[in-house]
Write a structure and sequence with these properties.
The protein contains four helices and eight strands, in the order E-H-E-E-E-E-H-E-H-E-H-E. The protein is an alpha/beta fold and 211 residues long. A six-stranded parallel β-sheet has the order 5-2-1-6-7-8. Helix 3 links the parallel strand 6 and strand 7. The protein is globular and about 50 Å long. Bound molecules: pyrazine-2-carboxylic acid (VGL) and zinc ion (ZN). Pyrazine-2-carboxylic acid (VGL) binds next to helix 3.
Length: 211
């Protein structure tokens, strides 16, 4: 075990990204084998002193939903005022069963739940910024104020919310470690390979939970 990856209960936090029903088998935006991360994360959480969760949390008329447009299908890309946006099936609608955390995820030790994507006109993959890349969620200030400087990431999906969060963490000066076996990907048109490459280039460390 390398010194760099000894968990420090005060300055390290585990960020558990979007482990919600809609991203698991049978969900509206199924990530292949998404629920496989649940027991792995269950083993991981007790190793950390600080646990933060994110929850994708959209209004029913969210502009990242293909259903918001007349002639658009899920997985097409459109241009919104803040840039390119992939369109998705309706998912994680506020208060719906699909938006709830997977029943097997123990949320007791979560000290903070960051909800994101609640503004109709802006999607939010990252736990730090909405997709306009400028509207903060407040997570960076929260972590800094609590003296947390290193983030371990896991959850769904590797190539969207996990990757965007890890990249923003680096951009904001946090150390970021993605626990790959505790993540699953959507892998849309090469998005997983692209995300892994961008994370590597940004100095995100990628290891398995057996570190
Ligand atoms: C996500 C697409 C849309 C994710 C959320 O959690 O990775 N992906 N909303
Ligand atoms: Zn979403």
């Amino acid at each position: 075990m390398s010194d760099a990856l000894m968990i420090d209960s005060d300055r390290d936090a585990l960020l558990v990204v979007d482990v919600q029903n809609d991203f698991c088998s049978g969900g509206a935006l199924e990530v292949p084998n998404g629920e496989a991360v649940v027991p792995i994360i269950g083993q991981l959480m007790p190793r950390f002193g600080r646990v933060v969760l994110t929850q994708d949390w959209h209004p029913a008329d969210h502009l990242s939903f293909a259903s918001a447009y007349q002639a658009r299908a899920p997985y097409q890309t459109i241009t919104l005022p803040y840039g390119e946006q992939t369109l998705w099936p309706d998912h994680c609608v506020q208060g719906s069963p699909g938006a709830a955390f997977h029943a097997g995820l123990n949320t007791d030790r979560a000290e903070l739940v960051i909800r994101k994507g609640f503004r109709r006109s802006v999607d939010s993959y990252s736990a730090f910024f909405e997709n306009d890349r400028t509207t903060p969620t407040g997570l960076a200030a929260y972590l800094r104020e609590r003296g947390i400087s290193r983030l371990f990431l896991c959850g769904l999906a590797t190539d969207f919310c996990v990757a965007y969060s890890a990249l923003d963490a680096r951009r904001l000066g946090f150390e970021a470690i993605v626990l790959l076996d505790a993540c699953r990907a959507i892998d849309l048109a090469g998005s997983l390979q692209a995300a892994l490459r961008r994370m590597r280039e940004a100095g995100v460390v990628m290891v398995d939970t057996a570190f």
